[in-house]
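User: My collaborator sent over this chain with a note saying "see what the structure looks like." That's all I know about it. Can you take a look?
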Amino acid sequence: MNNLKLLSLTAGVSSLILSGSASADFQGISWTMSSGAFGDTYQIYVDVDSGSQLNAVYGDDANALNIVGSSAFFQSGFGQATVAGMNPALFDFFPSLIADSFVTIGLSDNVGNAMLDIGIDFTDFETAGGAIWTDNGSWFATPDDSQVYEIDGQVLIGQFTVAAGEGVSGTINLQGKNADLSNWAVTDVYFNTVPAPGALAILGLAGLAARRRRK
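Assistant: Without extra context I'll predict from the sequence alone. Here is the result:
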């Protein structure tokens, strides 16, 4: 029995493991970026309609999950691979923890955190800053956990710190609930925080045009 099927049986959250690909309330992926002593820190969000939930980020044998940095992910020696290691009481004592790379559902620290994970080997991610990959695993929280609900249309799914000027990309699969508690799911959702070369060229031309207008 694969781990995703096991999840629905042992955790009592069969509503997280859906069929079909309804995505009425899913709007896309967005991110914020801040720069600091440990590199560029990206917070990756799932964008959904008001009142919606995100319950699971997963990979399966039909649609693997892969998240990778264009440099190694920064990992604080005081953190963990998931938000469970983000203890705000330690932030003042260990500033590197604030920039730690981790996955989550909704929360940026572990206060009130009820997120679980199953079937994902985080060893390379946590010890060497490598990619997160799975074709049979998930991190998730149940519909009863408040952290699954959107705030201002967004649900945080991870924080990733890379070297200055580098970025994060990935392909993920998502499951959640609409405001009316019907299920939604999307697969093969791609994101990339670094613009493609063509987009960079367009941005460069736009900047050149702006400089010319200012002269």
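A starting point for your reply to your collaborator: Residues 148 and 192 are 23 Å apart (CA to CA).
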